[in-house]
Specification:
288 residues; alpha+beta; nine-stranded antiparallel β-sheet; two-stranded antiparallel ribbon; 11 strands; 24% helix; globular
Length: 288
């Protein structure tokens, strides 16, 4: 699933291409893409037509387009875009051939290009939500991410240290700090020399601070390289892939030498996913 850097790449592309434009027509194909919108796809399409896209926004790895009635009225509603495992938001010419798994199309009143939602695995989709304080009401419980101007590093450190779960589980908890997924959690833990099963409450404040800073650092570096793409499913709005996968030190590096000490990297089961770490640099806690 796309994490903060990948979603931010898409957000920037949307902000550049669709902000301030009026939707001429909307087409939402099938119930899966609109399953989070109870009235159904036809109602969703009708409610999008004629609306102004006033901005593209993100909190952590959650993305939305704010909707106004015109450019002079404060937006009061948002189109939440769930990218799922393979969702893509593509800006294309209307005459360009459609990708096979195109599930939604938005055309605009002022140009010949359009916005397409393509999703091979159909885990993603659209939903409308009321904006409260500029944030969709359904996302109000999501914590701020490390790049948000209002992010309170000290408060997050204190919250992390109160939790008696493994530190990786805490990093992935989007109500504690948002934007970090499996990829960047593994990278931040490796950079910090901390095993993901260490109890969060056993870490010192400075150790938690360093870990959070490493998470922000690695996500910033990934963002500079367009995010992490392992296949053609994650792309920006122009269809281009990111290339941070070439710079990963831990995630997906099972059996390769640790970039720091040379010990073969180890892959372990973690929830319904996996974790990759260095047995030498990231000592596994006893009893785990």
């Amino acid at each position: 699933m796309p994490e903060l850097p990948e979603v931010e790449v898409v957000r920037r592309g949307l902000a550049a291409h669709v902000t301030g434009r009026v939707v001429a027509t909307a087409e939402v194909r099938g119930h899966r893409v609109a399953r989070r919108h109870e009235p159904g796809p036809e109602d969703l399409a009708d409610r999008l037509a004629g609306r102004t896209l006033t901005g593209a926004h993100r909190r952590g790895k959650y993305l939305w387009l704010s909707l106004g009635e015109d450019r002079l009225i404060e937006p009061d509603e948002a189109l939440i875009v769930h990218l799922g495992m393979s969702g893509q938001m593509l800006v294309s010419e209307r005459t360009a051939p459609e990708p096979k798994h195109t599930h939604a199309r938005l055309t605009f009143t002022d140009a010949t290009d359009e916005l397409r939602f393509v999703d091979q695995r159909t885990f993603g989709g659209f939903a409308l939500a009321e904006l409260v304080g500029g944030v969709p009401s359904s996302l109000a419980h999501i914590a701020l991410d490390p790049f948000d101007p209002d992010y309170d590093r000290a408060a997050v450190i204190a919250d992390v240290r109160r939790r008696r779960s493994g530190i990786k589980r805490v990093l992935l908890n989007q109500t504690v700090v948002s934007g970090i997924g499996n990829i960047y959690a593994d990278e931040a833990l490796w950079r910090s020399g901390v095993h993901g099963e260490r109890l969060a409450s056993s870490l010192t404040g400075p150790a938690v601070g360093r870990l959070l800073d490493h998470a922000k650092e690695v996500m910033a570096q990934a963002l500079e390289q367009g995010g992490t793409s392992f296949d053609e499913l994650y792309v920006n709005v122009n269809g281009a892939s990111g290339y941070f996968d070439r710079s990963l030190s831990a995630y997906g590096q099972e059996g390769r030498p640790c970039p720091r000490c040379g010990t073969p990297m180890r892959r372990e089961q973690f929830m319904n996913r996996s974790s990759t770490s260095c047995p030498q640099c990231q000592v596994r806690p006893r009893g785990v």
